[in-house]
Amino acid sequence: MSEETPTTETDDNKSERKPLKVHSNLPIRSVGLETKREQKNFSDKPPQNYIHVWFARRPTPATRLGVLSSVLPDTVDDDTLLRWMGMNPNNLEDDMSIAEHIRYKSDTLDQRSGRVYDHYGYRKAYKNLPDEEEMGNFHQQVRETWGGELPTVLDATAGGGSIPFESRRYQLPTIANELNPVPSVILKAVLQQPQVDGDLSDDIQKWGDRINKRAREQLKEYYPDVEGQRDLEYIWMHQITCPDCGSEIPLTLNWWLERESSTSGTALQPKSAEGSTELKLPVVEVGTDVKKSEFDPASGTVTRGKAECPTCNVTVDGDEVKEQANNGDIELRLTAVHYESLHKGDGKRYRAAREEDLRAVNRANKKVNNDPDLATFLTEKIESGAKTSEPRRYGMDMWRDMFAPRQLLTHYTYWQTFEEVKKAIRDGDPSASILENEEPTPDYDEKEAEVILTFLALGADKAVDYNSRMCTWVHSAGKIGHAFGQHDFGFKWRFAESRLPAEGLGYDWVLDSMVEVYEELKELAGHASAPIEVFQEDAANLPLDDGEIEVIVLDPPYYDNVMYAELSDYFYVWLRRYLGDVYPDFFQQDLTEKNEEAVANASKFDDIAGDKSKSELAKNDYESKMSEIFGELSRVLNDEGVFTLMFTHKKTEAWDTLTKALINSGFVVKSTHPISTERPESLHQRGKNSAESTILLSAEKRGEREDESTLWGEVKNRTREVARSQAEEMYQDEVEFSKVDIMLAAFGPTLEVFTESYPVVDDEGNEVHPQIALDEARGAVRDYFIDKHLNEGVRDIDPKSEWYILSWLVFEAQRFPYDEARRLAIGVGEDLDSLKKTHRMWRKKSGDVLLRPHGDRVQDVNKDRDNRSGRKPVDPDALSFGAALDKVHAAMHIYDVQGATEAWNWMNERNCGSDPAFKATLEALLRVLPHDHDDWEIARDIAAGETGELLDLDLDADIFIEEGEDKIQGSLKDF
User: Fold this and answer.
1) Domain ranges for the chain
2) Other CB atoms within 10 Å distance of the CB of residue 762
3) What are the tens digits of pLDDT across the range 637-671?
């Protein structure tokens, strides 16, 4: 080794491996921008995103950065790394780095005149790989780093395969493991089957067409068309009986079929038949047949789980709705048909369900009930769990209950036809009835047959995803939404049925999609020749030798974010029937394994918790399982190896648990990098201020060291230093992260300090948990935010008001997670529940905190005291207030309802002009509230209007200017 080559040093030995790129600075902003570019267009993502539903797949730029930075030396510059990652623009200016180019092109995207990829100078990164020469250079650098050989990359919780797919494409020896059989099948299709010799796309198409033709013929009587029309989809509602008047109550949040605007579109209009319990649902055109003032389709029968009878207007309690469902009294009502007119120019329309439609449904019902095979088909019980409790509350006890009878019959028929195809493909059975007359029997080897059958089976799962009682009707777009728009089994009051056998739709679309995915996987990774293995094992018990692996890149289960096994049972029960004999080792149980799954699932302890906290038991279970997994990874990892994992979770208890698992397994954190990876518009993210970044955390095995404890006082000071330094660095680098992301990023260096110092004890010798260090990091970043963005007087106001202001500042949103709100309250010395119940500073919404504006807190001064709301804690007539925020909110109320003059008098009587806490709070709200918030506008008027003379605030004019507008230098008086 040359003298210029540095080495990695541990406590007891010197490693021959060069320092790695992941341990130095990374071009995280460029990778974040490319990630957003990849995520922006739903129809243009890597093929593994379309092969089958899986949860929380990582985007290509983040996974490539994780893999490549973990195998390359730190001597590789950022431009070279970005080029090898597929960001190699052909229009790069001489005086620009690639990172600067990407930032500039992102900033000027709206000003382009041509195509997006022409603007950037390269197609999306996932479509690109280094050419043969550059790939050779990449491999040379990697070999020199790892002693002359390419390192083996392991992903022990591979899920949908994003990480091993990229490792595979870069020709690195790769091992992917999954406990769950559903993603294990996906991994086979994504990682191994594109390398099977020959192009089997025509064969997948041929046999899929054969399945569709046969199933279509068998199902013909159950899907009749009206003359001149072709049915496309069917809109159903669950229906109960009114316990008061006996009338029908279709359960729906709204009556829209397709909404064009708030006042126009197509809808169902409920009409009670006089003297009858029947409720008719004719299709009407809102704005033409009926005006919205006469009928509002947005007002359905269901609100917060309760139902209202359209006939007698009686409210049916949610428990009564569930009781009818569990007693089998809930009905499935076909309400409307979305069809295509065969007359030129008429397009797609809607009609109410007709008698022939209902007769076809009844024929399907009788077939399902009377056919012995169908009557006992898919009868596996839906196990009680965190996500499955919702359908079980509405009487859906077996997996067959997820489907209306005609849906079940349709999927069953396609499966039966697949079984005929399987005989012909695997065995070349000339008696297989699926074969045409005198057609030669196929001659596929075992691997080829496996590819064809796997892609056809995954296609069947895609059909299941778009055709069940879990599928919504998206009235804003006039289409079916798939079952997992969100990661749960939320009960759908109204659901949609696909006409799977329809020509050009349904199964035809599914088959086309699977063939396209296969072809693209073949194109992107069919060239790879490096060894690839796929295991279906517990990640805590891998079939690998000690020290066999050099590089581990992992996207671990995220605490309580996703209940993978519970959700995947929806697909497992079908894949087990389709592929149970193709992958017999995968499908040995009736349902997926849940006890060994590493998630924090409190429902697992429903029957055994007793007086203990189920959440705490779930946390301990997750920590134990992650410790076992990390311990196994430590066993199989070479002493010079690197362990890089991705983690996205804002709950600090999740970080605390992860860190303890790493420590217990003998790892020390070496570096952290925040990368923007999440789509804020995702249903799982929307409105929840979810973290928009993934932390790329790299660790190594801890060397031998003396078992000495480190005092918390020393670690505390270092923690505050590194956390604040991280925040400052991110600001200086102008990385486009929100404040909550910056706070998350501070967790990384905090964990590095903590794991290097472990075990950490206080002055009395008691163990200090990582969570304490993370709280300290949050406090340091909070203080930095105050220094950077707020007025100094905020430090002297009461903690209740400080919490409210900091919540707006840190989360930059009205709504954010409860756990973060609680920890921020602890940081300022307040009780979060008291801030809600006593002071009404926030309210709960779907488990999150929603900050209240002044109107929710201040009593109406224009009402007599006896008529004022007792729920509002702030009395505007009071002369003194317990919190500065209360006084400011009261002033806002007076200004809003009585005007500037009365507000001046009110503030003058209460000495607001000489009250530093009042002035500091008002100024802080001007700095943190969004400019479109009503409270900000009132605060602006108080500060800048005639009342401003009383307060005499010394404010810079830029407080009043939106970001992006030209800044005006000067004081408030200039403004």
Assistant:
1) 1-151, 227-353, 791-960
2) 14
3) 999 999 999 887 556 677 778 888 888 899 998 88
